[in-house]
Amino acid sequence: MASLLGVLFDGLAYGMLLFLVSVGLSVTLGLMNFVNLAHGAFAMLGGYVCVVLMQRWGVPFLMALPAAFVASAAAGLILERVLYRRFYRRSHLDQVLVTIGLVFMAIAVATWMFGPQQQPLRLPGALSGQWTLLGVDLNVYRCFLLVVGALLAWTLTLVLERTRFGAAVRAAVDDARVAEALGVRVTLVFQLTFAVGCGLAGLGGALGVEVLGLDPTFPLKYIVYFLLVVAVGGTGSLKGPLFAALLLGVADVAGKYYLPQVGAFILYAIMVLLLIVRPQGLVARA
Amino acid sequence: MRLRTGWLEVLFWSVLAAGYVLWPSQLPFASQVLIAGLFALSYDLILGYAGILSLGHAAYFGVGAYAAGLLAAHGWGEPISGLVAAGLVAGLAGLVTSPLVVRGTDLTRLMITTGLGLLLFELANRLGAITGGVDGLQGVEMQPLLGAWRFDIYGRTAYGYVLAVVFVLFLAARRLVRSPFGLSLRGIRGNPGRMRAIGCRVDLHLAAVYAFAAAYAGVAGALLSQTTQFVGLDVLSFSRSAELLVMLIVGGAGLLYGGFVGAAVFMIAHHYLSSLDPVYWQFWLGAGLVIIVLLGRDGILGFFHRRRSSAASAP
Fold this sequence. Notes:
The structure holds two protein chains of two kinds.
Chain A: H1 2-31, H2 39-57, H3 61-82, H4 92-114, E1 130-133, E2 136-139, H5 140-162, H6 164-174, H7 176-181, H8 186-212, H9 218-221, H10 223-233, H11 239-258, H12 264-277
Antiparallel strand pairs in A: 1-2
Chain B: H1 7-17, H2 19-22, H3 27-49, H4 58-73, H5 79-102, H6 106-126, H7 128-131, H8 156-177, H9 180-190, H10 192-197, H11 202-228, H12 238-251, H13 258-276, H14 278-294, H15 299-313
C-alpha cells in the first residue's frame, strides 16, 4: 500500500514536470499546427543555464529558476523572429527538417561547451530530504515540483481564460485572419506565446535536472514524451495536456517500478494504441 | 509507357560497376553507401512519391536485418534466399502496419511511425535472448554466394552482390514510379481529395506502396547484416530514421537517384568530418539541414534538375 502511494506520488511529480516542459509544445504544435521537434532543446537550455549559474556563480537555486525561464524565452523569441516565422505556412516536412536540424546543432553545441556527461545539481538543503506522512516517504523536492506545477497550471489557465491577452491567443488560433481583421496583432501574439512556451520549457528543464537528468542528448531522449503529452492531451484546453502528462508520469513510473523488464515498451504501445483509437487526443476539441 | 534511358543513368551505373578499379581499397565502405542508397530509395518511394511523412522507416530496415541475421545465425546461410525471406518479412510487417500509417494527417503519421519505430527498438532490446540485445547478434555465418564466391574480408564479393541486388531493385522501382500506379501516387501526394473524387482508391494505393517500400527497406537491412555478418541494435534506432530523412533531402526527394547521391554525400561527409571531431560533424549536419530547407529543399539533384529544365525551356 505504501509503495503504491509512493509510486503514485512520484508519478504525479514526474507528470507535473512533463506538463511544464510540454505545455509550450501543446501551443505551437497543437494550436499553431507547427511541428517543433526542437522543443526539448529549449528545455535543455534552461537546464544548462540553471546548472551553470549555480556552479560557476553560486546563484541560489530559486534565483536560477527564473533565469532559466528568461534565457529560454529569449532564445525562443529570437529564433521565432529569424527562423520559425518563415515556416508557419510551409509543409510539415519542412518544419520537421528544420527543427531536427536545430536539435542536432543544439546537441553539438551542448557537447562542445559542457561535454557529454550528466550535469550534477546540488539542491538547497530546504528542498532535499524526505518527509514521512502516514508511513509514506515523501521526497521534499517532488512535493515542491507538485506545488510549483499546480500553481503554474492554475496561473496559465487564468491567463488564457480570463485576460485580454488570453482571449487574443484563443482568437488568433481559432481564425488568424478574422482575428487580424478585428485588430488582434496576430504575429505579436504568436511570438509572445511561443516565447512563453519556450520559457516554460526552460523552467521545466531547470526543475527537471534532478529528476530527468541533463546531458546533451536530452532533446532527443525526451522528445517522444513531449509529443505524447500533446498527442494524448489534445489541443482543446490546458486541462488536456495536464491530464495527459499526469497520466503519463504515473504510467511511466509505475511501469518502471512494477515491470522493470518491460520498461518503455508499454509506454510506446499505449502511445500507438491511443493514437489509433483517438487521433484527436483524449480530450478532443469542441 | 516508354522508359527512356539517359546517358547520365548509364554513366552512373557504369561508374559503380567500375568500382573494383576506381576504389578497390574502399569496397566495404562503398557497399555501405549502396545499402544506404537503397534504403533511401525505399524511403523516396513513400516520401518523395506518395508524400507519407515517416520518422520510423528504420523499423523495416531493422526487421529485414534481424530476419536475415537470425536465419544465417541459425544455419540458413544461403544469401539470396535469406535476402528474399527478409524482404518478404519486412514487406509483411509493412503491410500489417500500413492501415495505421496511411490514414490521418502528417502529424498523426509522424507520431505513429515514430511510435512504431521506438516500439520495435524496445522489443528487440528486451528480447535479448533472441536478438542479442545491446551486444548485437553474433554468429551470422554466410555461405558462398551462388555456391561459388566466398564473402572475403576485402569485400569484393560483397560489393558485387550488393551492387547487383541494388541495380535490380532500382530497375523495378524505376518501372513502378513511371507506371500508372506511380503516377497516381504523385496525384495523391498533390491532392488526395481530388484523387478520391476521380475514383482512385487512395488508402489502398498508399498501403500498397508502403508495404512495397517496407520490403525494399528490409532487403537493405538484410544486405547490411549479410555483408557485415553482424546485426547491432542500432539498425532500429530513431537516429537511423532521422539520418535517412536527411540523406534523401540532401540528395533530392522524388527523383529516384536522390537517395543514392544523398547517401554518398552524407556518408563521405560523415567519414571525414567525424574523423576531425564528432561534435563538428553533428553541428554541420544540423546547420546543413536548416540551410537546405531555407533554400527550398531541392537537394543536390533537384538543383541540377531545375537548372536543366529551366535551360531547356529558355528560348
